[in-house]
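DATA SHEET
Item: assembly model
Revision: 1
Owner: S.N.
Input lines:
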Amino acid sequence: MRVKNHPILTITTQKEITFTFNNETYSGYEGESIAASLWANEVFQLRTTEKKSTGRSMFCGIGNCYDCRINLADYGMVRACITPVENQMVLSSGDEGVANDEL
Amino acid sequence: MVLSNHDLIVCRCEEVTLGDIERAKENGLNTSQEIKMATRLGMGMCQGKICRCLIDALFPHSGEELLHQPSTLTIHRPIRPVSLGHIALKEDM
């Protein structure tokens, strides 16, 4: 998912950051989406479905289909394909909603 | 694993397969709106953004009708789903 060579654009190396997804630590680069970071780490399944417990990954990749929704700690559901990854992000598959103590 | 046509997913959000739609048809449901009510197709997280064109292709309209109303599925489209928690917190998303 990372563009490493491009005939026209110059690809510069971004700052490396770390984040956790389902209690595992992964590294990514600043400016890329959560889904792209996880994909580069060979994490393709982002969650399981509610009814049939089948896997879901990035599907449309443009924020339309909500298939890649994951939980961002202390925030709630985000779309992994369009949300930029940040250092020390804590992510998980389950949709846990907004933290209760904020309400 | 060999997939048959019955296992083809039409609606990814509500996990509706082509087999579910065929069963609904066998039960006498004829329009896309009826199928939607019976199977929850198009009523999931993406609000039919992905599957509406598929269900419209499964229940095509005649030419003249199509010009005036390309889809018979009622659309209650939000710009995007927002959790009640975020509305309560009045957070800028």
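QC remark: The longest strand of chain B covers residues 9-11.
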